[in-house]
Amino acid sequence: MRILVTGGAGFIGSHVVDTLLGAGHEVAIVDSFWTHGGGRRANVNPKAQLFELDIRDAKLGEVFSRFKPDAVSHHAAQHSVAISTQDPLYDADVNVKGLLNVLMSAAANKTGKVVFASSAATYGTPQYLPIDERHPQNPESPYGITKMVAEHYLRYFAASGGLQFTALRYGNVYGPRQDPNGEAGVIAIFTGKILQRQPIRVDWDGEQQKDYVFVGDVARANLLALDKGNGEVVNVGTGVGTSVNALHGAIAAAVGHDVEVVKAPKRPGDVYRCVFAIDKAKSVLGWEPQTPLADGIATTAAYFRANP
Ligand SMILES: NC(=O)c1ccc[n+]([C@@H]2O[C@H](COP(=O)([O-])OP(=O)(O)OC[C@H]3O[C@@H](n4cnc5c(N)ncnc54)[C@H](O)[C@@H]3O)[C@@H](O)[C@H]2O)c1
What we know:
With about 300 residues, the chain is α/β, with parallel strands linked by helices. The protein has 10 helices and 13 strands. Helix 4 packs parallel to helix 5 (about 140-160) and helix 6 packs parallel to helix 8. The chain starts with a strand and ends with a helix.
């Protein structure tokens, strides 16, 4: 198939590109290398065609008419909860208007399917655990709101124009190429700091748990979603909660030394426990996570050691 990956120079998108190329697909990338995003030229697979363009640009239609993708993997986004709260207008501009430009270009050029990077942020504070796909969506940030709105637009375009979709709601994705200088992505941040023998900051009591899923597994879910899971939203996580303290221990063990911990209060909006039910990914996509956390952390630490 011919697949256009938006955000294909970013952390997750670049792994999706690598996996799609590895499976024999032809791939093109649209990425603007947004200043506050994780897009890097070094992440761009040379076997993919690169269109350096903003997804909001009117020229996006020309990319579709030239490359004629059979499917789009939509990963370009304003990806930061913090930036979305400071600048909700910008967040909506990229995550809603940018998405609409992608969907309208796809529909006009007879693209068959969109695989969309959605988020646990659409659920808000869990009402029960593990969170399955029927859990109410009460997003608590502009970012969570725009991701939820995007899912509704996907349903609308499928119903009105026949553009198929699968929305993958990711847990906390980690792995090589994640930005260690970001405000999120605790595994990348801790690994970067511990490798540089700098203190790490642990908020709250450190016992808060999230569902950490390895980026290679997420990329494989994207590959499977090309021809499965039409019209579905699917959680992509591990079904296992891991605390910040446990992550700290595992990363220190992988790196081979430890650093000082600086305690900090709870961050506003942080959730104490978030774990996904992943049965639907199994039944709809035939997907299960394959990377144990210790292996994923070891791979991530080796990457940051080689790419300081
Ligand atoms: N990292 C996670 O744990 C996580 C969890 C849930 C959902 N997601 C979603 O997955 C996707 C990828 O996230 P990531 O963590 O890899 O972030 P990232 O910043 O590394 O990747 C996003 C890419 O999109 C590009 N981009 C941003 N704005 C653009 C624009 N207007 N036009 C064209 N390109 C633009 C950036 O340059 C970057 O390369 C995003 O949609 C994000 O919301 C990520």
